[in-house]
Amino acid sequence: MIQGKFQLFLTGTFAEEATTWKKAQEQLVTYITNPAVWTQFLIIALKILFIYFAGRIVIKLANKALEHMLVERDKHPLKFDQRRSKTIGKLLGNVITYVVNFIVILMILNQFNIRLEPVLAGAGVLGLAIGFGAQSLVKDVITGFFIIFEDQFAVGDVVQIGTFKGTVEEIGLRVTKVKSWTGEVHIIPNGTIAQVTNFSVNNSVAIVDVTITYEEEIDRALNVLRDTVSKSYENNVNMVKAPQVLGVQTMGPSEVTLRVTVECKPNTQGSVSRELYAEIKRAFDAEAIK
Questions:
Q1: What residues does CATH 3.30.70.100 cover in the chain?
Q2: Residues 262, 272: contact at Cβ < 8 Å?
Q3: What is the pLDDT of residues 162-205, one digit of tens each?
Q4: What pairs with residue 130 in β-bridges?
Q5: Backbone angles phi, psi at 162, to 5 degrees
Q6: Which of 3, 18, 142, 289 is 20 to 30 A from residue 61's alpha carbon, by CA?
Q7: Secondary structure (3-state) at 209
Q8: Protein fold of 37-133
Q9: Whose CA is closest to 171, among 180, 182, 183, 179?
Q10: Which ranges in the chain belong to alpha helices (H)?
Q11: CATH number corresponding to 204-286
Q12: Averaged over 70-84, what is the pLDDT?
């Protein structure tokens, strides 16, 4: 008797499950074959495509406008450096792309009836957590942006950052790479850059001090100096102005120091000084000036 009731229970259960499954199938078929559902899907798909292509068009128009603004800015008498204009244009173009893509994603999610308030709140909390957890990274990025935007230095410039002096190899939003004259590459986080000395902005001055004995005639030595540096100026493209023979600089225990200065191109004072020393040595030997 118990076994019969159990079989009856199983039969009833299977019958209910079969009925439920059949109803589910009927509802699914009805939903799929409902023209209103497909119309709604089509409208949503069209809206998504419209939003996507509208975002692409906005990005292209913004980049074109930005490029046009930079070209017009370059034509202005107070124009930016071309390298700086390209760098700033690329940065602003990336910012525009990220912002527009973020807005497009939010608008697409809204088409699926997803509430944007929790998404925006979660993004805000996530950004706040990243800001607190990576303060040094945020500082590096902000400082790097202002280094590029303000054109504090550029690739190829000779700079001194703290105790590191050399040629700038790369400027990024996070780090700056400086190569010293002995070959070492120093990688400096932008957030630690507090003071920069740029040796490539203005012309440099080469200072050449030549010593002669007290027995030599000052006027004769100065005349030889003037003739020698004048000939060097004609042959050296790194000299911006004619060298100036200033005269006697100091008087030591056994020698008199004569000074020559010359304005030259940025970071060429070393080569100019060496060339002048060599030419002056040859001239003094020829004139028997000790």
A1: 204-286
A2: yes
A3: 888 888 888 877 888 899 988 899 999 888 888 888 888 888 88
A4: none
A5: 65, -120
A6: 142
A7: strand
A8: Helix Hairpins (1.10.287)
A9: 179
A10: 2-32, 35-75, 82-111, 116-133, 135-149, 218-235, 269-286
A11: 3.30.70.100
A12: 57
